[in-house]
Design brief:
alpha/beta; Rossmann fold; 4-stranded parallel β-sheet; two-stranded antiparallel sheet; 5 helices; 28% helix; disordered N terminus
Length: 159
Amino acid sequence: MIGGRLSLSLFRVKGKNIRRELKLDHVNIYLDIDGVLLTKEKLPANYVSEFLTYLVNNHSVYWLTTHCKGDSTTPIIYLSQYFDKKSLDLAKQIKPTSWRTAKTEAIDFNHQFRWFDDYLFDFEKRELMRHDLLENWIRVDLDENPDQLLLFFSQIHKE
């Protein structure tokens, strides 16, 4: 389903599913790497290839990671140690961002977006709240739910 709204079970907190409603029209997607696409053990997240395939084919996708500050070759070199060829080819389609102190410096607040990250600093949360957009942060917790990327991907394709 493209367009409309869809309730997605994205993560569990203290044993409860947290559901979030996302508008699936074309949006900017901002991606962190560590804790989102790679586990803490530096293994590719479960279903990372399917997740990236959907994102790059349906949205404008941007790196929002310490591994990319204006140059998209840096995250590709980093991920080449861990990703298979298919996932790496998908990652090569992701656009770079530039920021200095806060990742929020790179977000285009004039366009709908979703930001997949495992952790935000308080000052980044405050910036999202200042724009009344904290709900656009999709908290990824691969320790709590190793299949979290599949939940996102599969819920979209059920509709």
